[in-house]
Amino acid sequence: MSSFSRCAACKYLRRKCPQDCILAPYFPSSNPQRFACVHKIFGASNVTKMLQQVPGHLRAEAAECISYEATARVQDPVYGCVGIITQLQQQITQIHSEIMKIKGEMVAHRSAHPQHLPSPQPQGEPSWFSSTHRQEQDNFQSDKHLSGNF
């Protein structure tokens, strides 16, 4: 980076942006709020250390994850990303219950009016969904049981 074109990190920290600034590719000057959020949660030194420990080809993804977690922590200081994950798991559980209820209603309707509908073709869920969802639900329930916070 040239001395007049600093990255968001160096601008925020009010320092000169060195040619080999590890933060420059991931915190461009066009998005200063991204670094401000990351700095507030993790600190510039810690972010630099984390990125240095990651292989070069994975640093962009690591910076994205750090930024996402920092944003989530600013919005929800207690749970951060875990709060978002918990909400999504609850939505999956709720929607799965709704699907099961609707399937039950369809079976009841078909058995009450067999002459009006063609014979049902077994559809079911894909095998990967059932086992994956069951495992996620079990993990969620055990996490919920252990923490007692959700």
Outline the structure in words:
65% of the residues lie in helices and 0% in strands. The longest helix is centred in the middle third of the chain and has 32 residues. It has 150 residues and is mainly alpha-helical. The chain is elongated and about 80 Å long. It is built from 6 helices and no strands.
Q: Name the beta content range.
A: under 5%
Class inferred from helices and paired strands? mainly alpha
Helix-residue proportion: 55-70%
Q: What summary fits the major beta sheet?
A: none
The rounded Rg comes to: 24 Å
Order of helices and strands: HHHHHH
Distance between the termini: 46 Å
How would the global form be characterised?
Answer: elongated
SS elements, strand count:
0
Mean pLDDT: 83
* Uncertain spans: none
Helix tally equals 6
Question: What order do the helices and strands come in, and which of them pair?
Answer:
Elements lengths: L7 H6 L18 H11 L1 H10 L5 H17 L5 H32 L14 H21 L3
